[in-house]
Structures are given as C-alpha cells and as structure tokens.
Design a protein that fits this description.
It contains ten helices and 35 strands. The protein is mainly β. It starts with 11 loop residues before the first helix and ends in an 8-residue tail after the last strand. It comes from Mesorhizobium huakuii. Residues 1-30 are annotated as: Disordered.
C-alpha cells in the first residue's frame, strides 16, 4: 500500500514558502509595531481608535499628504492608465503595454537541451532547462548594452504537486476535497534538486522583443548539486565540516534562493532563504547545534530529500545545515567558475542582497531576514569598489562589517555592528570567534537588542534620492494587546513599508532616520488603517509588499506576495508607488498575475524600456475562487498559464513588459 501524507488542501512546500509557522525569535526585544506605537503615542495622539482619520492625523505628511486627490494625481511620477485589479487565470498589464512570456519552467537553455516534456522529466534534462519557481531577476549588460545582456534568475523552490503527474489523490473529508500526496521517488527528488538554484542566460532585444540565445557562451544552470566554496570567516570551521567535506570549505549546491542582487562589479548574488524545509531527521542527543537549529526552525521536513540523501538527514550529517543560509556570489563571466558562499554577510533566512556604492567607495548591501519578528541588516565592505579593475573586486565580500537595525521611538535607527568581542558577543555567551557569531547571526542580533520586524523582505537602496525602502510583508502573529491609537495593527495582515534616510546621505552610516511610507491594505475599511493617499483608486491599493525595484529615475515599484480571493479579493501584482511631493503614497496597479501566483522580480532594464517580472507558483493553493474551493494540482490546476494547453502543466515564467511602439515604461 502506498503511504500518503496527511490530507491537506494546502501543500507542504506551499506552506513553507508562506512561512506561516510559529515565530522562532525567543527574545523580548521590542517589535517594530511597538516602537511605531510608542513613537506616535509620545506625540500625544488619541488612543483607542483605528479610524482612518486618526491614522491620517498620526502619520501626517508621511503618508496622507495628498488630501487633494487631483493635486496628488497631477504630481505623480507615473504616467500610465491604471490596470483594473481582479482575479482570473491569466496575466494582465496596463493598457498600451505588451507582456510577453520570455522564459518558462522547462524551456531549453542550451543548443543541446531537450525540449520540455512534463511526462518524461529527468534530472539530466532539467539541469539544462529553465528551473522552477523563478524569483529574483537581474540583468548584467554585455558591452554596456541595454538590449543585449545576461538575465540572471533565482529558482527558489519546487511545488511537486504541480510538477509531477500522478502523485496527488483527492479524497472527500467533511464535505470538502482534500489532497493526499504520494512520497516522491529518488528520481523525482533529483528533478527537484535540478530545478532549484539559478539560471544565467544570454538575451537580446530584436525588433522590440526579447529573445533567448541558446547558443550563449555564458549560459549556465546552477542547481542544488553544483560545487561551491565556503569563503570568509566561516570557511574551514569545525561547525561546517561533514563526512563528505572534512575541510569545511566545499559545499554542494544552493537552494531556496529568494531575492538576490547584482553587484556593482557585475557578479550575481543569490540569497538562501527558507533552508529549514530541506532537512529532516533528528540530531544526536545533546548535540551542540540544537539551539542554533531551533532558532532557524530546523528541521522542518517539507521536502523529502533526507529520505534519499544522507546530507539532508540530521542524524547522519548534523553539521550540514550550517553550510546553508548564506549569500552566494557567482562570476557570470566564467561559466566554469566556482560559486562562493560569502559567510561574512551572515547566516539567516536571506530575502535578498541589493547594494549601492557609498561616498567613500565601500559597498553597502541591505539584507532582510524573512520571518516574523526577525531583523533588518546591512553589510559594509572593508575594501572599496574599483570600477576600472574587475579582478580587484573579486573578494570584496569576504571582509566587512555586518550590522543589524535597532529602530527608536524618536525616528532614528542605529546600525549595530555584529562583531565578535564587542558587547555581548563574547565567549561568556557561547561565541568563540567571528565564525560562531556569523553561523548564529540571529542569536547575535537577539543579544544586541535588534528590533523585531514584520517579515523583512526586499530592501532597496535608492541612488537617486538617497533613501532606503524596506518591504515588511505582514505579521499575523502580532497580539492584540500591542495595538494603540496609531500603530501597530493587531494581526498585521497587510504589511507596511519603511523608508530610511541614512545620516548625511552616507549609506555606511551607523545611524539614520526612519519613517513609515505606507501602511498597506484596503483604505476603504477603517479598521485596516491603511495610509495610501486619497488619490489612490480602488485598484491602486495593495497588501503584502514583498519585492521592490527602483528604476533609473528613482521611482519605486512594489511587488506583492499573499493577496488572493480571501485576503484582498485581487491577485498579486506590480504597483507603482510615488514617494515624493504631493503624490507621496499614491499607488497605481501596472501588472497582475494569474490565480495562485506570487509577483517576483521586478527588474528594469538599464534604459527603463523593459520591466522584467517573475510569475512564481501560478496555480498554487486551494483557495476558494469562482465560488468553489478545491486543491490545485498537476491534473486539475486552477490555471494552465502560460500555455493553456491540456497536455501542459502550469509553468512559472519570466515575463518581459514593453511599451507598445517603444519608449520608457510609465513616462
């Protein structure tokens, strides 16, 4: 008899990505909501009301500046006709634009790649095809061109129930349809591992449309089995040594790469996020890593890799999880190069790693730890960027100072250095070296008193206006007794966006100021307490900010994760958000994804004439839509986007958005 997992309309890998599990931060460090509430309470505002008028009075010019809607609309930096919000099985873009599917899961990347056949999947074929669940998208120009370059794309995770035929059975329980998923074979696990990682592929714009060059000399797939090197302070430490790697310097693969970045010197960085789901088994009794792993939720066991490979079973390889949760740097100019896990940048559930060159030439990376009640970080390189010597930047990420943010009620933020021997980061608290501090970055930040945030995701520095935008997706675990007149909202379902101004415009500064740019959600519902400008239409508001981008004009674009029939009555999408002048906090919908999908990316080409977006996990979930609720799986998905063919499953894809007739996006 085939063993099945417990019935559930939502699948385990989906739940892992949603990160709805209990928070793992055990500290009593103050939450961002408590600090926002205390800050505004000190200004003497009324308590006990969440009316929109009270919210508007509280944040004043921060978010409700556009009392005159017409005036705000006139001052907007975005000139496009807004798309209508909604829910269906297709993607939609604002009028006057084309949204063309550029790369789909399984698309061949090399001249000798096999064509995609979902009924005959193999690890060998997948390793030379576009991977699954595209997330971060980056562009690296070839010869400085905005129309010829390398597209770099993360493949965060896999949804086997949407990938493989014949593994889902539907049963009736309590009048509802539930799904049972059969265990995966080793061959299917191997396909999953090959579908993780990243893609580097040459693309070119021809007659206004982007094309993939399968003969590109720099094309490459990175997977969960690609050989990598540990570099920086943790390399060679006893806590990263395994039976397969007694040196503690060689790791096979990367996985759960969420957002990422492209460095000023043209390398591709991948951020390892929800690594806990890949490990199963139990540590040996009394093992020294028990507390470390508990802080990261390891093992969670959403994936079955440990049933086939010892390195994912804690009982057999107890140190293996310490080799994941890092930032990975890839030299895209050498397809044979060894990717390097840059341990100086800390180990946690990295959402991304966006960077900017500071005034003194050092490079600053902003890093979010995507879990409820975890932290915002930045890493400042020790060395400086050399624009004229690519080789001089080769190991910039191996030395520098990692900082964690502590937000204060007076609107200031302190960036606390995470350095062994400073403050509580000493032997008395169990740290023997900087390597120990970095392996347990979360615990180090706990001890420093960092501010507990509402799922810090993408963090984007803006080189035009000098600001830094922090996406805080939501926090459904916040308790009602934390609510007061201004903020935070209990069970913060819709998230908010923080804007940081570093002192003197210096991104390396250890102190700055912060403001709330937006509290998200439906502004027509008073209890939600959203703070979009009054010029924002019924289509323009959003919840659950996740990824973001700043185009070359310094304009902010926000992608969402978690909207849907029950949460907001609309799918996820890409919104243009004004941050300056009378239009500040005005938002407009530009693109939306099909049912079940998350909006990832986004990325603007250097000339702003293309917006690349990643449509991730389309068709996922078992939410109620069109009046009925059911699981969505390979044989019966809620959409067959983007092919809409009966013999093709739903396929995560990258979409290229261009203006009809040419020209810059939204101007």
């Amino acid at each position: 008899m085939t063993e099945h997992r417990s019935p559930d309309a939502r699948f385990r890998t989906s739940l892992l990505e949603e990160n709805e599990g209990p928070a793992t931060n055990p500290t009593d460090n103050r939450t961002m909501g408590e600090i926002i509430a205390a800050r505004f309470s000190r200004r003497g505002f009324l308590k006990g009301s969440l009316a929109v008028s009270a919210i508007a009075a509280t944040v004043g010019p921060l978010a409700m500046i556009a009392a005159d809607g017409a005036r705000a609309a006139e001052g907007s930096a975005f000139k496009f006709d807004e798309l209508e919000a909604g829910i269906d099985d297709k993607h939609h873009v604002a009028p006057g634009y084309d949204a063309d599917v550029l790369l789909r899961w399984g698309d061949p990347l090399f001249a000798d790649s096999l064509e995609f056949d979902p009924t005959k999947q193999s690890a060998e074929a997948q390793a030379r095809q576009f991977g699954y669940n595209n997330d971060y998208v980056g562009y690296i120009a070839i010869d400085g061109s905005a129309e010829h370059g390398l597209l770099v794309v993360n493949h965060e995770y896999t949804n086997p129930h949407l990938m493989f035929p014949g593994i889902v059975s539907i049963v009736e329980k309590d009048g509802k349809k539930k799904a049972e998923v059969a265990p995966l074979s080793k061959e299917q696990v191997d396909v999953e591992m090959a579908a993780h990682g990243g893609t580097i592929v040459e693309i070119r714009k021809v007659s206004g449309k982007w094309q993939v060059a399968r003969d590109g000399k720099l094309n490459r797939r990175i997977t969960a089995t690609t050989e990598m090197a540990l570099s920086g302070p943790v390399a060679g430490h006893d806590r990263v040594k395994t039976n397969a790697d007694p040196s503690g310097t060689k790791v096979f693969g990367t996985f759960n790469n969420c957002a990422g970045g492209v460095t000023p010197w043209g390398t591709y960085v991948m951020a390892e996020e929800n690594i806990h789901g890949y490990f199963s088994g139990e540590l040996p009794e009394g093992h020294k890593e028990a507390a470390n792993y508990k802080r990261l939720g390891i093992p969670e066991g959403a994936y079955e890799w440990g049933a086939h490979y010892d390195r994912f079973n804690l009982a057999r390889e107890p140190n293996e999880p310490n080799r994941f949760g890092w930032i990975v740097e890839v030299d895209v100019n050498d397809p044979n190069s060894t990717p390097r896990k840059r341990t100086a940048m800390g180990r946690f559930k990295h959402e991304g790693a966006e960077s900017i060159v500071a005034k003194d030439g050092r490079v600053v990376f902003y890093l979010g730890d995507d879990e409820r009640f975890d932290y915002v970080y930045k890493f400042v390189t020790k060395g400086t960027f050399n624009a004229n010597d690519h080789a001089a930047n080769k190991d910039l990420l191996d030395e520098g100072t990692l900082h964690v943010a502590k937000f204060a009620e007076d609107g200031t933020v302190d960036w606390l250095p995470i350095v062994f021997g400073q403050g509580p980061l000493t032997a008395e608290n169990g740290f023997g070296s900087q390597a120990d501090v970095l392996i347990e970055t979360r615990r180090a930040a706990d001890l420093l008193g960092a501010t507990k945030m509402d799922r810090p995701e993408d963090i984007q520095p803006n080189g035009v206006n000098g600001k830094v935008y922090v996406m805080l997706t939501n926090n459904s675990k916040r308790k009602a007794d934390q609510v007061d007149a201004a903020n935070p909202r209990a069970e913060n379902a819709f998230g908010h966006i923080i804007e940081i101004t570093e002192t003197d415009g210096d991104f390396t500064a250890t102190k700055g100021k912060w403001e709330v740019l937006l509290k998200c959600g439906d502004p027509s519902v008073a209890d939600v307490g959203a703070t979009f400008s009054t010029a924002t239409t019924a289509h323009g508001w959003f919840g659950m900010p996740d990824n973001c981008a700043v185009d070359s004009a310094g304009r902010l674009w926000v992608a969402t994760d978690g909207q849907g029939p029950k949460a907001t009555g609309r799918t996820d999408g890409l919104w243009a958000v004004d941050t300056e002048g009378a239009a500040r906090a005005t938002s407009k919908l530009f693109f939306r994804v099909p049912i079940g999908a998350e909006m990832c990316g986004p990325l603007f080409a250097p000339d702003d004439q293309t917006a690349f977006v990643a449509v991730q996990h389309p068709g996922d979930g078992g939410e109620d839509w069109e009046g009925f609720g059911r699981p969505s799986y390979y044989e019966d998905p809620s959409t067959r986007w983007p092919d809409f063919k009966p013999d093709m499953p739903v396929r995560p894809s990258v979409v290229a958005i261009t203006r009809q007739g040419g020209g810059k996006i939204a101007v």
